[in-house]
Structures are given as C-alpha cells and as structure tokens.
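Hi L.,

You mentioned the student needs an example of a multi-chain input paired with its predicted structure. This one should do, with 474 residues in total across all chains.
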Amino acid sequence: MSEHIVSSYDNDLENLRRSIAEMGGVAEKMLAEATEALVRRDTTLAQAVIVADKRLDVLQREIEERSVLLIARRQPLAIDLRETISGIRVAGDLERIGDLAKNIAKRVVAISDQAQPQKIVLGVQHMSDLVQEQLKDVLDAYASRDTAAAHDVWERDGAIDALYNSLFRELLTYMMEDPRNISFCTHLLFCAKNVERIGDHTTNVAETIHYLATGEAPAGERPKNDASNYATVLPGA
Amino acid sequence: MSEHIVSSYDNDLENLRRSIAEMGGVAEKMLAEATEALVRRDTTLAQAVIVADKRLDVLQREIEERSVLLIARRQPLAIDLRETISGIRVAGDLERIGDLAKNIAKRVVAISDQAQPQKIVLGVQHMSDLVQEQLKDVLDAYASRDTAAAHDVWERDGAIDALYNSLFRELLTYMMEDPRNISFCTHLLFCAKNVERIGDHTTNVAETIHYLATGEAPAGERPKNDASNYATVLPGA
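Structure written out for the whole complex:
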C-alpha cells in the first residue's frame, strides 16, 4: 500500500503493532540476558536486565492507553476492534514476561557468591532456550498473523511443563543430598518456575492470535503437563 | 438516582462495576478457602478452589470484551474512559489473584499426605490473613472510589513483603534442619510467594484507583521491602 492511501486509522494500528514489536524485542532480550547472567553468574548483566524492565512497563501503559483512545476516536468494528483488544492482551503478557525475567536477574545477584556445581544451572538454561524459541516463534506468528504457527507454539507448551516437572524433582534431590545446596537450589527452583510461567504467557499470546483471527478462544483444554504442583520427593528416593 | 433517568451508558458502567464486584468476591473467597484448605489439609476444599477459578476467567474475558465494546459504541471521554480502562486493569489483577490462589490449592493436594509440624503452616496463614484484609480494603476502596483508603493499602504492601522475607528465611532453615522437610517446605515457599504476589496485585488495584481519580500513576516508588530475591541462608546460620 503506498503511503498516500494509508488512512490515519491504519497509521494508528501500525503504530500499535510497532510498539508491540518493540515490547517483544525487549522481553526476548531480557529473558536471554537473564539466563546468560544466571549461567555466567554475571551480576552486571543481571542489573542491566533489571533496568530494562522499566522500559517494558512504560510501553505497556502507553499501548493500553493509546489502544483505548483509538477505540474511542475511531469506533472500529469486528476485526479492527479485535486487533486493538489483542494488542492490549499481548502487551499485558509481554509486561509479565519482563517481570519474570527481572525476577530471575534479581536472583542471580542473590546467588552470585555461592560456589555450586554448574551442571545444576544447565537444566534451567535448557528450559529457557526452549522458551526463548517459543517466544520468538509466537512473536513472529503475531506479526505475520500466522494462526498455524501460533497453534504450533500452543501445542509445544506441554513439553516445557514436562521439563519443568523433571527439573523440579532434580533440584529437590540436590537439596536433600546436601543442605549446602538448599539456598542455591531454592533460587533455581524459582528461576525455573519463572521460565515455566514465561512459557504460559507465550501460550496466552498464541491464544490471542487465534482470537484475533477467529473472534473465539481456541477449542479444547490447554496441553498442560505441569504435575509439579502435585509433585513431592522423599529423601533417599 | 431513580431508574427512569439512568441512561443506557450509566447502565453499562453499572454492569461493569457489578461484574468487577463479583470477580472481587470470587477472588477473596478463593484466597480465604485456599488458605483454610492449606491449614486444615482439606483436599476437598482445595478442589473447590480449583474449580472456582474457571468462573473468574470467564468473568475477566467478559469484562474485557464488554468494556471495549462500550468504548467503541459510546466514545466516552476523560473520567468515563478512565473508568473503563480501570475496569480492564482491575479485572486482570483479580484474574491473576485467582490463578495464584488456585496454585496454592493445587499444592494442598500435593502435601496432603505429608505429616509435618503445623506451626510451619501458620506463618503462611498469618501472611494470607494480612493480604486478605488488603484485598478486602482495596475492593471496598474501588467500589467507593476512596483514594485515601487506596493509598493506605498501597503503603501497607511493604509490611507484607517484609513478612514474606522473614518466612522465606524461616522455611529455608527448616529445610536445612531436616531433609524430610524439604519437599513440604518447598511447596510452602511457593504458597508464600503466591500470597506475596497477591499482595502485589492488590497494590496494582490501589494504583488503578489513584489513576481513576487523577488520570496519573501514583508519584514515587512502591514501598517494596521484598529482599527475599536477594536472600540466602547458610546451613547452621
């Protein structure tokens, strides 16, 4: 579409899309850097992640208020209205992803002085790698309105939950083996839980893409495999 | 105001307020019952909490969609527009509170077969009692548009964070004393974290009340006292 026939309303929607893409970029970077900070015990990088979260909060509030003004001024119907509602929802999920990444970064500061076998951290890193891929894929799917790709992300969340579940048990086992691991592993448990919840938010975005295309929530239950809420590990087990 | 002079727009806003009040009631009940289920190890009550969360999800989506339709149809300005944005925000916080209460209920099921000293649970109960009071007060403040009461809730969140911090250390100490406590105490740690985050969401609602009245976010930083992200406990300490 050449520039002179683009209406002011299209411009507003385009700006909304651009802000959400910016939020997506910040959230992706925060998760990648929080994980890198955890693996390398890099408190400087962790502090940078904590600071980056402020930008995400500002962007979310702007998107929310601009979307609502856009609705009030333009009175969009059907697909355009859904686009605006979807923008508000996706911005909310990305803001939460930033909060969770920031929380991982804060924990990196907490455990920076504790010498622990690096292999315990690798499980969290592996899980984060998978979630980063999910996040990238779902942001691409949102930008290109690709419901098939969104559905693919939606289905893969079960694998992340299963991974979290096994990591949860593994970390509990380390704690039982040696009480000196408890403090460190507790922070890792929360880090892993944060990564799992970031996975849930990518699933939310996938559902929003489905809603954007169809006006409906996806049929069927989410592919949840998170049994860790029910998991217990006994000493010596 | 007698019924015949109430405009259709006022009716829409009134319905929005009523739905939010219903969500608030469900969320309060879920937190109270999840805590009671935890203290009494009552898995039947815990299951009821898990089921109740579905109603909250439905109500949130309805509020979001109805608010946006209301904006599109009525083009409200200034205070009425803020009322609608605020409704979307508060509904989002209440939905998250329900999720967190549901997660506590799921953990009650996990630890139901473990015999542990009841006193460990009492710290979580005490924290939950405080948060329930905050939640009640902030919902009242929202219903009556009482910014002074909202500010009071906002300031009290620091005390809950401080309590969580001390509970975090206490639970880590129990884990170090006896590895048989680890599995149980890990679930309690997550329960306590959930309660602390419910406190954060009540603070969000308090901020929304301020925004509703003034059109601005509250000045100054949140009174955060949550040092537990940085806390570590050493064995024997």
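You could point out the following to them. Residues 78-111 of chain A form the longest helix (34 residues). Chain A touches chain B at residues 61, 64-65, 68-69, 71-73, 75-77, 81, 84-85, 88-89, 92, 103, 106-107, 109-111, 114, 172, 175-176, 179-180, 182-184, 186-187, 189-190, 193, 217, 229-235 (CB under 8 Å).

Best wishes,
N.
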